[in-house]
Amino acid sequence: MDDLDALGAAPEGAKRNAGFFRSRWLGEVPLDRLFGRDMLLVGTALNIASSALALVLLGLKLPLWAVLAVHFLPVPYNIFLTIAVWRTAEKSGGAKASLMILGSALWLIATVVA
């Protein structure tokens, strides 16, 4: 009937099929993958791509509001990734997790400012 077992937890199959955002929000993704691949590689690539597209739009003399909208489009995703790293790191604990919390905060500041 529903996807919860007797204890109110999702069965193992449902956890494996969790969506991209849900799995990261719930801390089901390993911290190393979340921080390294999702945040540093993919997140940074998205920020570079949106900044490059914003520069192209600026060169095409589009309105400034459109250029800024494209430039700041990844910010909600960046905030999501940062909070997901914090939540997952809190579950993990340890010095490495603390460094990843600090790194994610610095990364967020750098992506918003740059």
Strand fraction equals under 5%
The level of helicity is over 70%
Number of continuous helical runs: 6
**Quick one: how many beta strands?**
0
Helix and strand element order:
HHHHHH
Main features:
elongated, mainly alpha, 6 helices
Structure commentary:
The chain has 114 residues and is mainly alpha-helical. It has one domain (29-113). It contains six helices and no strands. The protein has helices at residues 12-16, 20-25, 31-59, 64-71, 75-92, 95-113. Helix 3 (31-59) runs antiparallel to helix 5, helix 3 runs parallel beside helix 6 (95-113) and helix 5 packs antiparallel against helix 6. The longest helix is centred in the middle third of the chain and has 29 residues, at 31-59.
Sequence-ordered SSE layout with sheet pairings:
Blueprint (H helix, E strand, L loop, with lengths): L11 H5 L3 H6 L5 H29 L4 H8 L3 H18 L2 H19 L1
Short overview:
The chain is mainly α and 114 residues long. It is 75% helix and 0% strand.
